[in-house]
Amino acid sequence: MFMRMSIANNIKSTLPKHDTAKEFFKTVEKRFRSADKSLAGTLMAELTTMKFDGTRGMHEHILEMSNLAAKLKALGMNVNESFLVQFILNSLPLQYGPFQIHYNTIKDKWNVNELANMLVQEETRLKQQGHHSIHLISKGASKKWKKPKKGKMAEPPKIKWANSKNRGS
Description:
Retrovirus-related Pol polyprotein from transposon TNT 1-94
């Protein structure tokens, strides 16, 4: 059978021989139905946990999430467009917080294309604005220990008292 010859050997050995193509396809369908369920679970987990990290553009990020939703639809799990919009908003980092607040306060609901256009504009605005951050490093007051000379023991630093003249010195 020609169809059997076009299948990889590791899969071919697990499939029983059939006389008709119809029987053969039914067997293949039954065998790989559980793989579809597993793939759907994996795709759904990836869609719900995906985060925008800025390594690629916003447009590519939204396209990838839309492609995952399309794959889920092909497997029989239709992702509503409003859910997809919410998944995209949830995948955004903290810099997009004001954008999310704005979206939540308006009455209109955007579709994926409108959201993509707005987010690309927001990405451009954030890049132009730049990231302003300061890394503060402080060092506490240290008491100086002097390295002892050969043959002498190290002495602790002398404490100067503010209120009395001859205390501890």
